[in-house]
Amino acid sequence: GIVGHTGYNSCPKCHAYGRRVENRTVLLETDSPLRTDHEFRLKIDSTHHKNVSIFEQLPNFNMINSVPLDYLHTILLGVMRKMLDLWFDTKSLYPPSIKAKISQKISLLSTYEPKEFQRRLRGLEKMKLWKGNELRTFLLFIGPSALKDYISNEHFQHFLLLHIAITILVDESLCIKFNAIAKDLLYKFIEEFSFYYGEKNHSFNVHLLLHICDDVIRNGSLDNFSAFKFESYLGKIKSFVKSPHQPVEQIHNRIIELLSISQLSINECALNYSLKNPLENGFYGKILINDVLIDGSSTCDSFVQLNNGELLKILRFRLLENEIIAIEMDDFLVVVFTIDDSCAVIRKEWLVDQNSCFFPSTFEYHQAMKAKSKSSYRT
Ligand SMILES: [Zn+2]
């Protein structure tokens, strides 16, 4: 490994040498020579290295260029969060009244966030709790409108340099074409940072912005190599552990279960299944599909998740016309269309009679009518 971010020669990409300002290490140099794989392996800058990295054993691995910077930590949790703290934290540049007004604007603007946004942006009173996705929403979408007319024009113009540069770098179609422009904007942003916020705040992350455009050229847009998806999966892994006893085994078992569920499709149900636990009127209480048990009487084995993420509780099953299984749920049925043998989950009210149902495949009225006349089902 290499020295941490408080080290004088901590930049993993260049030879910028830090200095101490008010008990903080700052990296102010912007024109230092870049590090190379060759000199890294020779440990020429000896104090940059803490020990020999195991990655040096990987074939065709460049110890500088094959290790891209991560924009979740560098830009969002790093620079964007620092600017928010400088503007609105205690002893900040703007009074609480301005913070409150911007917060109001954020809550108004955030109501327009489309549902594809993973997390709705909360107000500035919760900014200490903002997750990476919220900082991303602020930097790329809501920040410019929320800040305009509330912070000084100098701070606003300076923030826009970062906003525009990162907007270019997250866009697949712009990140290479306008890479040089993004680099110029970030260079100006870094150069002006100390002027507006003081040298002591010119931190490691601010310096790293110098190098992010080169990583985009090598790896594509920022989301291509960000830690977002790994961080969100870490949360999922944590949720697998329900007790302190044998946590690794619990994680392993949940992952194996998930893999077996993801391989199960409704179409496969008809191919390899066996019904168990016969009830009245041709119903069954359990079904074994490709070694996965669904038990209508059990709380933990009776739920299925549809492709749209919706959870359904299955109550019982039945067999009709000696062919296809029916899976009956609280308000839903699984039907098989004879026209092409495809399956779908429908609401019970869509069932017309034993041989037909409504099915608004594209949610257009005429399509549904057509489906009624053409499609039949075998439950
Ligand atoms: Zn550097």
UniProtKB/TrEMBL annotation:
PANTHER family: PROTEIN, PUTATIVE-RELATED, TRANSPOSASE DOMAIN-CONTAINING PROTEIN
Record's protein name: Transposase domain-containing protein
